[in-house]
Amino acid sequence: MLHKPECYLSTYTQRTDLWAKSLLIPSNRSEEDPRGHLDPSRLRRLLCINPLDYSASGLSLFSEDISLFNRFTDCEECYDISFRDILTESKLCVLRGEIYLDGELIPPLTVEVLGDYSARIRLHGGSRKVCHIDCLQIPSSVGYVC
Fold first, then answer.
1. Please, are residues 141 and 128 in contact by the beta-carbon 8 Å criterion?
2. Span 76-145: which CATH code?
3. Burial 24-43 (b: 16+ CB within 10 A, else e)
């Protein structure tokens, strides 16, 4: 488990200095970690179960168990998002209405207004691509809630 900061990649890249997995080192380990003997950086097949965008920060889970990908598919995803301009009723109607991505209807979003330019969006089994709708930009992303 890792809190991935912004500007790190969740998936494999040639630039290992930008890979979130490179942060899984003993000096970043919690003092309360009961498995103090395990060194994740030595696990060759360690993959990010819930990849986050480069510009997003939040909870990232790593495992060598590929079957966990399927288990996390149905988790609720939560994103704190920023709007380029003020959040209007028409934008809220779009977000709370039917949204099609890649020609498919995604499950309804739960939208909580945080401020004039921000909201928290929760989606279940959908796609984080919804956060790339023309009027949105994502400064951060906050974990997965099952």
1. yes
2. 3.30.70.1560
3. beeeeeeeeeeeeeeebeee
